[in-house]
Design brief:
Layout lengths: L1 H17 L12 H18 L6 H23 L3 H17 L3 E4 L6 E11 L5 E11 L2 E11 L5 E3 L2
Antiparallel strand pairs: 1-2, 2-3, 3-4, 4-5
Length: 160
């Protein structure tokens, strides 16, 4: 039930964001901003779902969704393609080595750290790792949580 409420609130927040006047809605967003907004909304909704009860829980999910979407979009505005490549390469290395990895981009000043958390076997028998990725953009830290699973060819694929 919590997942359904979370997704409903995320869809509502993203629908409301699409109603912004020209220059403020999705039509001006690049792919990174869209991913940042959606990822932030889902992360914020998940965090909000851990608080309150009854109608209060729905409110905290809604607030978490909106705040997460705004934070995710704002962070993504300052991440360049080169930052994304550096971050993705660092995530792959952190998953493969099961050790913390840092990255930085001297061109933008953005940096990040990936810290593997828990390793487990998925129901399909894949080795999967949960991790946190803290990204510092403009001196502000944004933290994301994800899970990657090892593919048959040895690479790691983000699954959540």
């Amino acid at each position: 039930m919590t997942i359904r409420k979370t997704l409903t609130c995320a869809a509502l927040a993203l629908s409301l964001a699409a109603c912004q006047p020209p220059g403020g809605g999705f039509e001006d967003m690049n792919t990174g901003e869209t991913v940042g907004t959606v990822g932030g909304a889902l992360g914020g909704a998940l965090i909000g779902s851990r608080f309150g009860g009854g109608a209060g829980k729905v409110a905290t999910i809604g607030v978490g969704t909106v705040l997460g979407a705004l934070a995710g979009r704002e962070a993504a505005r300052y991440i360049t393609g080169n930052d994304s490549r550096r971050a993705a390469d660092a995530e792959e290395r952190a998953m493969a080595s099961n050790a913390p990895i840092t990255w930085n981009n001297p061109e933008t000043g953005n940096r990040g750290e990936i810290v593997p958390q828990r390793t487990y076997q998925s129901p399909a028998g894949q080795t999967c790792r949960e991790y946190t990725h803290t990204i510092y953009v403009g001196g502000k830290a944004e933290q994301a949580h994800g899970t990657a699973c090892r593919q048959p060819d040895g690479t790691w694929k983000l699954v959540s």
